[in-house]
Amino acid sequence: MSRLLIVGSANADHVMNFEFLPAAGQTLMSQNYRLEHGGKGANQAVAVARLCQEHTRVDFICHVGDDTIGDALSNAWLSDGICEDGVTKKAGQATGTAMIFVGKNGENMIGVSAGANASLTPEALGYHQHLLRKADWLLVQLETPGPTVLSALTLAKENGTTTILNPAPASVIGKDLLRLVDIITPNETEAEAITGIEVTDASSAKLAAQMLHQLGPKTVIITLGKQGAYLSHDGFEGIIPGIAVDPVDTVAAGDTFNGGLMVALSEGLAMTDAVKFAHQAAAITVTRFGAQRSIPYRHELSTASL
After folding, report:
1. Residue list for the binding site for substrate
2. Does domain 3-11+38-96+115-303 bear CATH number 3.40.30.10?
3. For a 10 Å CB count at each end of the chain, is N or C smaller?
4. What does the entry list as the binding residues for ATP (predicted)?
């Protein structure tokens, strides 16, 4: 049985839809409002759970608040097949919160309050080290404290786990952390934050990928929105096109891509085929509103990509 582990954030997403995104100082009336289950770590864990096969164990290490939304989140994850061992409810704390503005073309603006996510310290992570030691694959992001991400990657590498870093939200990352990463999956903004190279096309993505390789990761996948994803892996360098769709909401697209990528690789797909699998899952996500509720199940993907 494969064991897939995600360490990351869990949030309540307060989402407003607009005709267009507001400019600085501008007040707009939203077309609608809804409360969603979100957080990059939770989104990726849900994507993994919905896209993996039955013989796979999915664990998610996170902190939620001692509140009703924390209960709702954890109950929903259980129904998707995520094991409960890594989920901790923090007394006296609120579940993390995100405020999301979505334009009619699917673009978004997001602000996040960490809440209980901030309490997922390296010390707290230690209570779940048995999950890290047993994991075959680890997927992490940057919405939890940096020292925690470093600790998770360190323990995983000590036990031969393959590590994936989705370096979101965009930030400068230390070399000590990047040396522990096997696969890194930034978007254009995140790649620029790490390398200083503005990524707009295949040529600039290649330069950024070369620098990322020098920092540690053997595999670099830079997601490029509608263009697809630039892959640099084991001698292959180039863009793997995405799937053309009419997007309505891109909030969880990157998270679905990362979850799908880990699932596909854990099942033995070649890297190029794994990226195509991830593209297909993300393409479905952007045609639906919401974060976790927009993430597809395995049976919704074309069997031609499995």
Report:
1. 11-13, 39-43, 143, 255
2. no
3. N
4. 187, 223-228, 254-255, 279
